[in-house]
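Hi,

I'm pasting everything inline rather than attaching a file, because the server keeps stripping attachments. The sequence lines come first, and each chain or strand is labelled.
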Amino acid sequence: MFDLSTLNPPQRAAAEHTEGPLLVLAGAGSGKTRVITFRIGHLLLDRKVRADSILAVTFTNKAAGEMKERVRELVGRSRCKGMVISTFHSLGVKILRRDIERLGYKKNFSIYTTSDQLGLVRQAMREVNADGKKHDAEAILWRISGWKNGLIPPDRALPRYDDPDELLAGDVYPIYQRLLRACNAIDLDDIIMLTVGLLQGHPEVLEHWQERFRYIMVDEYQDTNASQYLFISLLAKKYKNLCVVGDDDQSIYGWRGADVGNILDFEKDYPGCRVVKLEQNYRSTGTILEAANHVIRNNVKRKEKRLWTDSGEGRPIDLVTAQDDEEEASLVVERIQMERYRHNLAFSDFAILYRTNSQSRAFEEQLRFESIPYVLVGGMQFYERKEVKDALSYLKVIDNPLDEQALLRIVNFPRRGIGDGTVLRINQWSLEQSCHLMEAFGRVGEIEGINEPTREKVLAFHRLVTGAAEDFRRSGDLAGRVKRLFARLGIEEELYRTIEEPATARRKVENVEQIINSMAGYEERIPGATLSGFLEKVSLMDEDRFSGKDKKEHGRDAVTLMSLHSSKGLEFPFVFLVGFEEEILPHKKSMEEGGTIDEERRLCYVGITRARRHLTITRCLHRKKYGKLLERQPSRFLEEIPERLVQFHEGGAKKAATEEEQEALAQDFFARMRAKLG
DNA sequence: TGCCTCGCACTTTTT
DNA sequence: GTGCGAGGCA
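And the predicted assembly:
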């Protein structure tokens, strides 16, 4: 229950300091989330602050969800009404939905994520006659995104002359922004940039939100970039009841423009602010903590702190060396089985953490093979699949007919004989007439150079979409409407027809059906659910708490797989830190970019400190890359961990070459397990 | 005009 | 292993 005396003195000081700026420097595992939740509890129950005056901002949906959960547990659901605990992006969208018309966008704007963004960048590149080969769209988008995160508008973007990508990006940026606007769409970076613009340019809007959120808390403050920093500064300017929590050692978003300076300079920004340091670690064993401390102290530019614990030493860290990535996966899974049996644990006590999402594949396969349940966190996976994007694009067009990226996706899906040539012609015409692509489809009769049967097909498509939009204007039963729409479109038949492998087709059909399930789950949860709301959640990757799939998986006992970035803020009794090799951790790209490896080291630090009871680090001698077996070197961070903390293990030479052999080995393993259990 | 197949180049991290 | 663009064929 809610009792401030259960906190240690600095924790309590932080929770009780409610008026005026507060900086909490919280080391890993120092009970940071506990402080934030107790602080909210204190505001609500002791200071009698209205719930809807409280705002807590985090970076990931997962962190926001967890915080909501913990606050509800502490004070009860009913007391939380109106409180906003969300990510920067969700908060931005909330503010924009109310007043974006002041910036010349319509209220039903779409949110463009990576693939839509790339589509627009390519289009813009074509407009400046840049061939897609030399400069790939991703590099251009990267530069544009960097400018946006720094709040630099197209007319103030100054490319460096020695960087061809950046020069081209400078040309593309204004066109890209224009195209977005024409689609009534904003991209993920716009969410923050436009919100800041709105607040800066419209004092009455700023006033509204300043009055609304009198008590503001920001988690992981070390990861804020320039635009997020300004966003929060604006909101907090009036009442200055701003509490920021962070740890410079866990700053891992420098690549996204995050500036550790924001947390290091907080005391300068808010003179007379209270500073609280949390240095006692309640999470990990002495061994794990010592390893982490040894690694991180190789970073020079940091606020000196010494994390300590009074819990015991614990088990040594296991270092497992595998022959290759396949064996790495099987050794990890084998160990999970063993530890689980030996200590009577749940699968959810284990996490496998990796540097890059692509590393998950081998582990997924192995877990599936052993019939062990797992949850894969992050890595756009589901909504990035082609068939899902295609089907979803119908909903996007219905919601916002100006969304050209979505419109272009569906115009010939399922195949209806409207090919690239026709679309190109219509698009040209729409530019000449400066009317919208959707409108041009309806007026295809006026366009020359398109033959009659094709015109008829285009008109049929136009009728189909406008008819569907009509249907969705009625409220209620969204899932039912989507189901009927997909059936009428014949998406299922199209997938079976065009995909040779029946199993693949089946899987894709199931994925499309999954959209309907997610929709149903969303409707169930949110009263007055709307299509916009659903699509917004999808774009902000905030869908896992209502989708049908995860509802089944939620609370299910499963091993967690995720990237090191996603793992920040979380903890697990048993952690497997895998792929501990040069070029993975630290990552090759991070070193090429002329950058420092300090951020990679912090990432490593984050990984180690996720573990409570036991840490296993694994690496491979060889790894398959583009089908070739390459030799690997151990990560340089390995040398930074004192040898006395580590126990070394070698992978067996026993390797299954064929599926039969694999099956035999598996059977053998299960037999041994059963023998032990019996 | 539309569709299919082949080849090439890339795989950091998140909202 | 994937997704894009180009080029050739129906």
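The first helix of chain A runs from residue 9 to 16.

If the labels don't parse on your end, tell me and I'll reformat.
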